[in-house]
Write a structure and sequence with these properties.
The chain is mainly alpha-helical. The longest helix has 34 residues. The relative contact order is 0.06.
């Protein structure tokens, strides 16, 4: 849980991060200088080959140091900068052989500088794409020596970031809408540029048309690059999370048919987790998607789980407590294996593995004690690990709370609050939140949000008056009506 780390340890971690960042920037600068030198002495094709292989090996290094969110953001920024740099060299090398020398402006302004900024805006918060945009702008200045081209790259990049923030990350159409947003600063800069350099109207319109095509190309490249970035750096974008949350997928159709109770439970936990994550500023899309998949392992033996035992005998009655506990615990392992077979992202598989942490299967442990069996507590505990993120901690609390409240005979606000409080205290005392970066304040906000949501779900409904068939009133109502009639 959000326990403060010792100052020395924290300082050491920060030093390691700064050291890694400096090494990566050092490699990037070395690549930049070496390729620019080769390009300057007219070894352009050799520069392209050299930069391609350096980009390939650097990508492998970056992927291996891709553990935390900080590392991912830095690694993707560096990769995107070098990828943009390489693509620009390819673009410039090819066009210099095809276009007349006096059309240098065409070569510079026909490149879609902002495609990487657009991609990163979809994947991260604004800071990484802003850093990348500035790096690309400086890179363009270093290669071309053209201040206008550098400003052009900067304006396109910030236009892309603004477009994604304005239209939202939830739809792929945002990429194409953003492309048209970028045209405004591009047109304005071209107008200023043509005025300063006394360019003819024909050349201005020609360059503007080139920029328009460039912006459309930007959208296509960004759409192509998003899944590549996701794969290379094991990142789950908001668009991917929305796709994963689509309950029309085969896995959810199978769950609805073979384990309807588990399917309904997963939907409820997903709703609770999404609201709770929103309340503390967590990743609500990730919490929802993870909650939907957290119990897929129950599909292997759905009849052994109480929510699926409607009008069916309980198969645990003929099993020993230790065997029953093993079957229950095994749904986590089965779920992780299924998730890997389905190709689910690691972030989603983490929910499957961590949603029970190392908690005790209390019912069968107590049953073993009642039967006088010498029970080793470790046999009745889930293997873990404990929740490692805010979102997995939220799903753990939502999962236990929803299941417990469902077992109440007459759920009301008081009984729901008492039940959720009891579960919260039990998990807290058992140390299940110790490894998650979540504070006590955030946990209490999550708990209150769960109580509020469950109370709303299980509220009392007004009992409607009964009516006889054909719309006639009940006998008592007809009798009262006859008494009052003249």
């Amino acid at each position: 849980m959000g326990k403060p780390k010792r100052g020395g340890l924290k300082l050491k971690e920060e030093s390691l991060r700064v050291g890694l960042l400096l090494k990566i920037i050092g490699v990037a600068v070395t690549v930049f200088v070496a390729v620019h030198f080769l390009y300057a002495v007219e070894y352009s094709y050799l520069a392209l080959v050299y930069s391609f292989f350096l980009l390939y090996f650097l990508t492998k290094i970056l992927r291996e140091s891709n553990d935390g969110d900080f590392d991912k953001a830095i690694n993707v920024v560096i990769f995107s900068f070098l990828f943009t740099f390489l693509l620009f060299l390819v673009h410039k090398t090819i066009l210099q052989r095809l276009v007349e020398s006096h059309r240098e402006n065409f070569i510079i302004f026909s490149f879609p500088y902002a495609f990487a900024s657009l991609v990163l805006s979809y994947i991260f918060d604004p800071l990484p794409p802003i850093i990348l945009t500035v790096l690309v702008s400086l890179g363009v200045l270093g290669i071309t020596g053209n201040v206008i081209a550098s400003l052009y790259a900067l304006m396109l990049g910030f236009g892309a970031i603004y477009g994604v923030l304005h239209y939202g990350k939830m739809r792929r159409g945002t990429i194409y809408r953003t492309a048209f947003v970028i045209l405004y600063p591009a047109s304005l800069l071209f107008l200023v540029f043509s005025h300063l350099q006394d360019i003819s109207l024909t050349t201005f319109l020609d360059d503007l048309a080139t920029a328009t095509v460039n912006v459309l190309e930007l959208s296509v490249i960004a759409s192509f690059l998003i899944p590549i970035i996701e794969y290379l750096f094991r990142i789950v974008s908001p668009l991917r999370l929305i796709e994963l949350s689509n309950t029309n997928q085969d896995i959810f159709k199978k769950m609805a048919l073979e384990a309807p109770g588990t399917f309904h439970h997963s939907l409820m936990v997903a709703t609770l987790a999404e609201r709770a994550a929103d309340a503390i500023g967590g990743n609500s899309l990730l919490a929802r998607a993870g909650a939907l998949y957290h119990d897929i392992g129950k599909l292997k033996m759905p009849q052994y789980f109480i929510e699926n035992q409607v009008n069916l005998p309980n198969p645990h009655e003929n099993k020993s407590p230790s065997l029953s506990a093993m079957i229950i615990i095994n749904h986590v392992k089965e779920g992780v294996e299924m998730g890997k077979e389905m190709g689910l992202p690691r972030e989603i598989i983490d929910f499957i593995a961590q949603h029970h942490g190392t908690t005790l299967v209390k019912y069968f442990y107590a049953k073993a004690k009642e039967m006088g069996i010498e029970a080793d507590e470790s046999t009745f505990r889930y293997p873990g690990p404990k929740p490692q993120t805010k979102e997995t901690a939220i799903v753990m609390l939502c999962d236990s709370s929803e299941a417990a409240v469902k077992s109440l005979k007459e759920p009301n606000e008081e009984s729901i609050r008492a039940t959720v409080n009891s579960i919260f205290e039990s998990l807290l005392e058992d140390g299940q939140f110790d490894e998650a970066p979540i504070t006590m304040r955030e946990l209490r906000i999550v708990k209150e949000e769960i109580i509020k949501s469950l109370t709303a779900i299980h509220h009392k409904r007004v009992e409607y008056p009964k009516e006889e068939k054909n719309g006639s009133k009940s006998p008592e109502e007809n009798k009262n009506r006859q008494k009052t009639s003249p």
